[in-house]
Structure formats: structure tokens, C-alpha cells
Amino acid sequence: MMALERHQTREAFPLVLNQFDSQASSYNDNSFVASQWSSGQPVTTDLFLEMNGCYNAMEGMEELLPTPPSSWHPGNPIYEAASRSLAPVDEVAYMRLFSHQQQHPQIKEHLPPESLSFDPPPRAIRAVTPDPTAMLASRFQDRGIITTRFDQYNEMDFAIHTISFAGRYDQGDSFPLHIDPIGLNVNGQLEFFGAMKEGDEPGFKPLSPAASSSQIQPLARSPQQDAIQKIYDYIEAHPNDPIPASYISRELFEFRNGLGWCLMGDCAVGRAAHKDGPLSKTPRFWGRLNHLYDHIRGVHFNHRPFQCSLSPTCQMSFVRKDDLACHKFRRHRYQRFPCGMCDNVYTLQDNLKLHIQCKHVDTLISMHLSGVLSAPATRVHNPEG
DNA sequence: CAGCAGGGGGCGA
DNA sequence: CGCCCCCTGCTGC
């Protein structure tokens, strides 16, 4: 194999795409290989996975194809997407990967299950705590007659990503009914993909910003990815502001007939499990949109813009304003005493009483005489007023 | 006890 | 609809 830079291969040699077969040794029905050919021999070969309309490039397959196939042609959208992916990228990183692939050629086989019990294949990825395969197993272990198995592909020491698939097998079947990519291991950090929403065909929607990293660049970004990226951009630009509801777009949740549910991450997995059959995880519903927004802000983005400033040693921050208020009261015994007759607010009740005696004594007397006097309002929480 | 998160009333644009 | 505020229950330490 010639060591060419990517832009050289792209310019010099034609791109050929062939769909990977669906035999037991293949990856899956939605995978295909993009190769660039010179004199009948491929010079670069990339594996692509089509996932719910997104094409993820899994770089560096060393396996050479016997003959240039012709099932994909220029003009085909997948061809175009793959062709764009072969545009020049980080040449240094690519050459490192290229040389690594030459020294350590790898191709993974699809291993059909030997039994219906969950039995993950041996894995050789870098140490991850907790083990992502075990975490995936715990999410899908109760599927009734459908057995879930996690097959690991494209494990590369150099790089960067390992994708976990949940294949579903019927009783006695050796081959999966279908395969959902549901997890992604990026640099040892496990990310999950939401599986599907109601009405979707089996597939997945990438949910993590990791999926849009430069190392795993989906060739066609999903609307959900765009929405998530937009929120991350907002958080970066406004770290001290809560995520506006207008940023939490319909790609991230559904709200129908007075009930809403989250389409992100674990929630979407639970939703999909609920739809598919026996519950492995109960989906959560929300009756009010603002609580759903709070959930997405806190659980899926962990954005905590409300920081406690009452003590230099207190580093607590909160997703919600009222949680910060509660914290201030409970931890710091901090509260505010607003005057019911003007806008002044005091941190000590004595100061409030003093203020009322000095500034509002006339009002107090008239209220007392008219019989409408009541105690000044005091607020327990709500220190922000 | 403290943090977290959902329920619900209310207000204003 | 978006937001604020308060209430409440759960959970982990």
C-alpha cells in the first residue's frame, strides 16, 4: 500500500464505494467501504457506517477488496458524503493512523451469539472504568425473547473510538434482527446514543458532542446534533446564564397531548425500550415543558449557572435558581426580609423592623387604625427577591 | 441534612 | 409559552 496523503489520493485516484455484504463475517447491512483505486488496487480504504441518515467514517480498514465494485457511483448521496469525508483532514494525525494501520492491520469480525444469554465478546480497548460494555449490558439486559448482544468493532489502539452495537436476536437465531449502534467510546469516555423516537425506523441519532468531534465526523449531521451543538455554543458564550428555552428545540424532546418526554441519551434509550417491548428502563414523562427544559439543562448538559457567592469557600452551583436559593438558606442561613411597603430588602429581621419604624411609622398607624394591619411579609426562601 | 428533581400556581409577554 | 416561585418527595451521606 502506498503511503499517500489524503488529498493526493483524492485527487489522483477514483473513489469507489461498495456495500459491505451481510454475511456473518460482515459488519452490518448499513456499512460500506470507500476505497480509492489505482491500477486495480486500493490505495486507501475507509469503512463507513450509515446510521439513521448519518455516515460515520471509521478510518483505516486495511482489508483490501478483491475487485473494484460498482454498486455506488458519483451522484449517489452516500458517494458524495463519503467523497467529502476524504477531503484533506489533519494530515499529521492521518499519517500516524496510516502508519499504525500498516503495522497493525485490523479487521473485526461480526461474532454471532453462541447462546441467547448476554455474553459480550472479548474486548481489547483501553481501560475504562466502569466497563462500557457492562454499562450497556445493564441497560438492555431485559428484552424478553429478544437478546441483546454488544459487538465491538474497529478497536484501534491509536484511535479514538470504539462503537458498541446492540444487536437483537430472536430465539435460536444466529443473526441479528437488526443492529443499533447505541454507544460510543471516545478516548475512554463513554457516550450513549438515543435509540429512536416513535415512528422512527430502527437506527440511532447521535446525541453527544463527541459524535461531532473532528475524529468522528458524521458526514451528514443530524438536526439533533445541530441543536446540541448550538446549546454547547451558547453555554460557552454565556456560562453564567441558564440555557434559554428557545435553544431547547424539538429535536431534543417531544410534547404531545399534554405529556412530554426527553429524546436525549439515556432517556431516549428508555423510551425506545418502552416502545420495543419489555421494559428495561421506564421512560420518564413530564407534564410541563419547563420541567422538561430543566431536566435537559441539568441532566443532559449539566449546566449549572447559579453559583453560590455567599462564602469564598462554597463552590456550589445549581441548575435552578430556586435550588441555589434553598442552598443559601439551608447552608448559609441566608435569607432576605423585604419591606412590604417599599422596595427595600434586608438580610436581618431587626434591620427590617428598624426600617419600618423609621420610614413607615405613619403608614403603620393608619393601617392599624383602619384594621388592615398585618405583619410584614417575610420570605424564607427566594433570597434573590 | 443537603442536593436533586418533579408538581403546580401564577404572572407577563 | 417561558419563567418564577414554592412545595414536596426521594436519595445519599
From TrEMBL:
Tagged with keyword Zinc: yes
Keyword Metal-binding: yes
Domain C2H2-type: 306-337
Signal peptide interval: none
Coiled-coil regions listed: none
Alphabetized PROSITE patterns for the sequence: ZINC_FINGER_C2H2_1 (PS00028), ZINC_FINGER_C2H2_2 (PS50157)
Entry-linked Gene3D superfamilies: Classic Zinc Finger
Keyword entries, A-Z: Metal-binding, Zinc, Zinc-finger
Domain of life: Eukaryota
GO function terms (MF aspect): zinc ion binding
Protein name as it appears in the record: C2H2-type domain-containing protein
Provenance organism: Serendipita vermifera MAFF 305830
